[in-house]
Amino acid sequence: MNAAERELYEEAILFQTHFLRKPSKIERFSKGVQQQVNRRIPARFHQVMTSAVKTMVESTVSGSHFTSFSVIDEQLTIVERNELAKEKVKYYQKAAAIEGIGTGAGGLFLGMADFPLLLSIKMKCLYELACIYGFDLSHKEERLFLLCIFQLAFSSSAHRQKMISMIDDWETSREEMDWYSFQQEYRDYIDLVKLFQLMPIVGAAVGGVANHQLTGQLGDVARHVFHLRVLKEISM
Questions:
Q1: At what angle do helices 78-104 and 179-197 cross, to 10 degrees?
Q2: Structure letter (DSSP) for residue 73
Q3: How far is 172 from 165, CA to CA, in rounded Å?
């Protein structure tokens, strides 16, 4: 592992440590508020969210929505791949923000439409990042790995530790995915944001900013997870 690779590896370790820290008092308070908000969101919206997540999981596992992306030069270093990945995340952040502004301005019904659209944008982003780092998504286990990253990015502090352990021991734990928890964790994670996005006018601003941040968060988590995975293989 050269100096540049070592720097990326240490950055990923630091990111992981920060990401797995115990929730602060503010975060615990926010979780309490979120649980109350959860009960105020229309049942129809919960149904849309649950159905969208289920469809996304099923299509990812089966590979039914898998499409080939641009072939990445195998000679690229991980540092060069990281720069490509950053640019790709920015592209999808812009796409998600534009989509969030459009649907957020329409209130309840268009706000509900935003959820499956944002899921699709996030998964496309993950697919492209995996290709940039050289993973073959024609293999089911690699698509399952993307769902692990997705769970890690959008779950409670307690669940993150479980996902990190699964990712670290991917070869033996990849068949232990709990799809019900996947749906529940993701839905609960973004309920508060989505409630504001359902409000007419205000929803446009919230939708644009929230979608931009959520997609960026997924991209950051994915890059660091891929760095840990690739660089561990290099150092072995």
A1: 50
A2: P
A3: 11
If one counts the domains in the chain, the total is: 1
CA distance 79 to 96: 26
One-letter amino acid of 170: W
Element (H, E) at 124: helix 108-132
Q: What is the pLDDT along the chain (236 residues), one digit of tens a residue?
A: 889 989 999 999 998 888 777 655 445 544 555 555 556 666 666 677 777 777 777 788 777 666 666 667 788 999 999 999 999 999 999 998 887 776 554 555 455 566 777 888 889 999 999 999 999 888 888 988 998 899 888 887 777 888 888 888 776 666 666 666 777 777 677 655 655 555 555 555 566 777 888 899 999 999 999 999 998 877 65
Contacts of 109 by beta carbon, 8 Å cutoff, 6+ apart: none
Contact call for residues 194 and 44 (beta carbons, < 8 A): no
**What 3 state SS string does 201-212 have?**
CHHHHHHHHHHH
Classify the C-alpha dihedral 132-58-187-93 as positive or negative: positive
CA distance 182 to 147: 9
Nearest to 45 by CA among 119, 118, 123, 109: 109
Q: What is d(CA 160, CA 60) in angstroms, rounded to the nearest whole number?
A: 21
Domain span at 94: 3-235
Report CA-CA distances (Å) from 2 to 5, 83, 85.
5, 17, 20
